[in-house]
Amino acid sequence: MSAPVLVLSGVTxxxxxxxxxxxxxxGVDLSVSLGELVAVMGPxxxxxxxxxxxxxxxxxxxxxRVRVEGRDLAELSRRQVAAVxxxxxxxxxxDLNLLPSLSALENVALPLELDGVRGxxxxxxxxxxxxxxxxxVLAGRFPDEMSGGQQQRVAIARALVGPRRLxxxxxxxxxxxxxxxxxxxxxxxxxxxxGAAGVLVTHDARHAAWADRVVFLRDGVVVDQSGPGAGAESxxxxxxxx
Length: 242
Ligand SMILES: Nc1ncnc2c1ncn2[C@@H]1O[C@H](COP(=O)(O)OP(=O)(O)OP(=O)(O)O)[C@@H](O)[C@H]1O
Description:
With 242 residues, the chain is an alpha/beta fold. It has helices at residues 48-55, 78-87, 104-114, 119-132, 148-160, 178-193, 205-208, 233-236; strands at residues 4-17, 20-33, 37-41, 63-68, 71-72, 89-92, 166-170, 197-201, 213-218, 221-225.
């Protein structure tokens, strides 16, 4: 296995609400290498989305370190973290965040254009990403002319566009029927096989079975994980996924 793309070391995230402290994550260690897809499972409120937000530089830990492609995010300026997010991290939000005034193609090309990639090149890459999720023919449509599942696939294409090496997906199959959901997981899997590291938050054990490993969170703590190479089934059929 090659060098890790994402490393979380002793990561804790606390939220203060008056006198109360909510510990969303407590001392989490996690390393994800190129070629690996890791599923994160756990009950509601166990810290899954928090873990993803910290990994993508959208939130900062109270303690511990987050490294993306060897760079400690805490040592970077806000501008540098934003550049890491644009260039290295593909993030599929639960909330799709598509811009309604842009076509599917323009939505997908936007992160590249914001990063200075020229229009023609960005649009070619966007078309390839849309084709990867089976939406090449709808490239000219606007979000309100597409079904919820099609919009979700546009959001996934936007996360995949360009040479992103860390893919973070929070329930990416939420609005999709099972066939389309499987197609999205196949795309995520193929991207990881072709040279990316992926983290997939899911409640569905069938989806987690696409991963190489499953990390199981409870109350902000990693309570179980299947070993590298052991395959997701070893955990899903064991005690951890209960
Ligand atoms: N901004 C915040 N302020 C206070 N508490 C928060 C905040 N964000 C998250 N939390 C708390 O941190 C804990 C973990 O939340 P998180 O959203 O990471 O859980 P989750 O496992 O993704 O849940 P779900 O499966 O329901 O999406 C929860 O107890 C939540 O209420």
